[in-house]
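Sharing a chain and its predicted structure for anyone who wants a worked example. Both blocks are below, sequence first, tokens second.
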Amino acid sequence: IQRIRRYQSMYDNLTIVADYGGVAKSIVRELREVHRIPIVNAEKTDKIAQIQFMNRDLSLGNVKLFYASDPSRPACSEGTRTGRSTRGT
């Protein structure tokens, strides 16, 4: 919870997206209801289009991925069009 709060303070337009199905359902419910953390349900319709949107946003820099173990270290280098991890390079 503290890490989420820290990211919320760092990024004004932070959006958390989660799959509400299965095991995550109770976790998402607790985060939303108990901790008042806004979470958007992941869109599962038209999966190919969603992947294309995500790839576009990654390549434009609209989405940034970081390692959970070190939030200061990007998981993707700037300008990476594929969104592949640069881990180990």
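Comments welcome. Residues 47-60 form the longest helix (14 residues).
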